[in-house]
Amino acid sequence: MAVRIGFIGTGGIAGFHINNLSKIPDAKIAAVCDVVKEKADAAAAKLGATAYPDFHEMLDREDLQAVYVCLPPFAHGQPELAVLAKGLALFVEKPVAMDFQTLKKVTAAVKRKKAITAVGYQDRYLDIIEKLKKFLEGRRPGLILGYWMGGMPGVMWWRQRKLSGGQHVEQTTHIFDMARYLFGEVKRVSAVASTGLMAEVEKYDIEDCSAVNLEFHSGLVGTIFSACCLQTGGRCGIDIFGRDYTVEYKERTSIKITHGPITEETRVANDYGLKEDQVFVEAVKNGDGSAIRAPYEEGAKSAALSLAASESLATGKFIDL
Question: Is the pTM of this model over 0.90?
Answer without folding.
Answer: yes
